[in-house]
Amino acid sequence: MSNPSLLILPGDGIGPEVMAEVVKVIDWFGDKRDLKIDVSHGLVGGCSYDAHGTPLTDETMARAQEVDAVLLGAVGGPKYDDLDFSVKPERGLLRLRKEMDLYSNLRPAQCFDALAEFSSLKPEIVSGLDIVIVRELTSGIYFGEPRGIIKEGNERVGINTQRYTESEIARVARSAFELARRRSNKVCSMEKANVMESGILWRDVVQEIHDAEYPDVELTHMYADAGAMQLCRYPKQFDVIVTDNLFGDMLSDMAAMLTGSLGMLPSASLGSPMENGRPKAMYEPVHGSAPDIAGQAKANPSACILSFAMALRYSYDQGDEATRLEKAVEKVLADGVRTADLMQADGGTPATTSEMGDAVIAALEASL
Ligand code: NAD
Prior knowledge:
By secondary structure, this protein is an alpha/beta fold. The chain folds into 2 domains: about 210 residues, Isopropylmalate Dehydrogenase, CATH 3.40.718.10; about 130 residues, Isopropylmalate Dehydrogenase (3-Layer(aba) Sandwich). About 40% of the residues lie in helices and about 20% in strands. Helix 1 links the parallel strand 1 and strand 2. It is globular, with a radius of gyration of 21 Å. Bound molecules: nicotinamide-adenine-dinucleotide. Nicotinamide-adenine-dinucleotide binds next to helix 4.
């Protein structure tokens, strides 16, 4: 059987810096765990514009469609702010998401004990937190028609339309139930069925898919506003939360900040299964290209390393190795190795990006 494949797109700013540390991790798994991955590299974002006049070439897009997974660093930067909208770095990212039809966005909010002090909530509320928000990514109010700003009499009216088909709801619900089966078998679906028809349909379809295909998974429903309150009050009551594009955008950002730093947050965007049964998939840290620290060896590579851990789990069926990698990152933090973003002002000398990567490799070695 051929090796699993990975397309690496480091992108701009700190993207290539954090990706260099992930490459060390990939090489380690190849050498020490006999987990060989066929890696190819490409350009996306501003660096692709510089080289080819477009943020994503057709060749790179075609390669992304062929591989088992894409791992992306970050795109953008002030150098590209004045470019025409059609060739802005972000267009490369959006084209990947759209053409790969990545409808299920997984955003874990996991609080490593060593970082509980960085949360805006009390440590006892977030310590040990481990939840995943599944956000529908390709439909809903950000895409629905009609939309626009029109004139009505003497005033302007802004219009956006929340629109979901049954099949769009069903496929993201399945994605959440499948995920729950790999975790604690618990899903909470969030909408506003009390005031929105699309919310009523959302609730009905999620319930129908549950009853017909996933009766073993515990399913609850919650209004999204109440869900936001519960996430702040007692987040550990949740395991998998599934919600639409708009509510997911807000709830996942909110849940993410329960855990402290942007430099720690991975994400996965999944689509329909390919011929080999694996879902189309792109993994990327939540953070951007951080131009304020780019080129200074200050970036925390953990979010990108943890994004690769998600690829191990969801694209390569290597759940045990994913856990090994997550535990290695946790050990590094517990041992007090910190990049600048994870330190208080008087915390001493921070680790550089590559020192943090090396510490993860050392922790992986120690795990053998
Ligand atoms: P950002 O995430 O790049 O940075 C926000 C702050 O967090 C900065 O102070 C930065 O130094 C810090 N930070 C981010 N990642 C870090 C890491 N790994 N380690 C340590 N500190 C880290 O967001 P921004 O400043 O709003 O955007 C900068 C550029 O990135 C813009 O061009 C924006 O469009 C782009 N962006 C890209 C993506 C993406 O590629 N997915 C996401 C968000 C923003």
